[in-house]
Design a protein that fits this description.
Elements (H helix, E strand, L loop, with lengths): L3 H28 L4 E4 L2 E3 L2 E4 L6 E6 L8 E4 L3 E16 L12 E10 L5 E11 L10 E3 L4 E2 L2 E3 L3 E7 L5 E13 L5 E3 L5 E14 L1
Antiparallel strand pairs: 1-15, 2-5, 3-4, 4-15, 5-13, 6-11, 6-12, 6-15, 7-8, 7-13, 9-10, 13-14
Length: about 210
């Protein structure tokens, strides 16, 4: 048995060592870089313009093998994998004023992919919505005729998308693969022609650990 005084000194030393070890571990955890989420530079081959309500910038997603011919975004220098986030919308045409309500209907299923700069597919995503009234739209886009008017093309309701970007990539693209659609006059339509716009993206961001 240790005398009381020596035992108290020994216990105090043990507690101090334990506290120091805990502090060092906490400092090590604190020093680990935290991910940041930022808007990123986006290049649109077909820029649709700004939303009337959201003020977002909207880009057409075109059927293509290369993001440079559709939607392309840079990834800031980062450590490890990053995450690409964006909102995907079906692409609807709003009928002209006076068109009977029963002719507004459209159902669209758009298949898109996030690709490397080489065109290799990283992930695929699909969005399917129906359009019957303006309530089925996420926003309207400024810039139509006459001056101050709205474009007839509009984004459907948003589908949040998350795509993993492997370490080492400094850019990725979003391309269209295929569109399936139904309207009153054409109940079974498909499109896979290069250059055809099939969807819309907005609110593009990147989450990453800075290098």
């Amino acid at each position: 048995m240790l005398p009381n005084a020596r035992r108290d000194v020994w216990l105090a030393g043990l507690m101090a060592a334990s506290a120091a070890a805990t502090l060092m571990a906490d400092q090590g955890r604190t020093a680990k870089p935290a991910p940041v989420r930022v808007a990123t530079a986006v290049t649109c081959a077909a820029d649709l313009g700004a939303g009337l309500t959201s003020r977002r910038t909207y880009c057409d997603v075109l059927i293509s093998k290369s993001g440079q011919d559709s939607v392309y975004m840079s990834i800031p220098p980062h450590t490890g994998p990053a995450t690409l986030l964006f909102d995907l919308h079906n692409r609807f045409t709003v009928p002209a004023s006076g068109t009977p309500a029963n002719e507004w209907f459209m159902r669209a299923t758009a298949l898109v992919a996030v690709v490397r700069p080489t065109g290799q597919v990283l992930e695929k995503f699909a969005i399917r919505r129906e359009f019957r009234t303006v309530k089925d739209l996420f926003d309207r886009i400024s810039g139509g005729a006459p001056p101050g008017g709205l474009k007839s093309v509009a984004p459907g309701l948003a589908e949040p998308i998350r795509a993993s970007v492997p370490a080492g990539l400094n850019g990725v693209g979003i391309v269209g693969l295929r569109l399936e659609y139904a309207t009153v006059s054409q109940p079974d339509g498909t499109a896979d022609t290069p250059g055809r716009p099939i969807a819309i993206v907005s609110n593009v961001r990147v989450e990453f650990v800075p290098r």
